[in-house]
Amino acid sequence: MGATSARQVALPTVEITVGDGSALAARALAVAGESKTTGAPPPPAVRRLEQLDAQTRGAPNPMLPSTYGRRPPLAYRAGVLLSGCVLVPLRLPLFLLCCGCAALFATLAVAGLPRAGTNARPFSAPRRACVLVVRACTRIALFALGVVRVQTTGSPAPRASAPIVVANHRGFLDAMWLFWAYDHASFVSAEEHLRVPVLSALVRAAQTITVARGDAASRARARAEIARYARADAPPMPRVIIFPEGTVTSGHALLAFKPGAFEPGVVVQPVLLTYPNRHLDVSWLYGNAPVPLLLAHLLARPWTLMRASFLPPIAPTDAERAQPRLFAARVQRAMAAALGVPCTEHAAEDCVLQGVGLRERLPAHAPVVEFGALARVYGLDRSTAKAAVREFAALVRARKAGNGNGGGGGGGGGRGG
Question: Across the chain, what does the average pLDDT equal?
Answer without folding.
Answer: 81
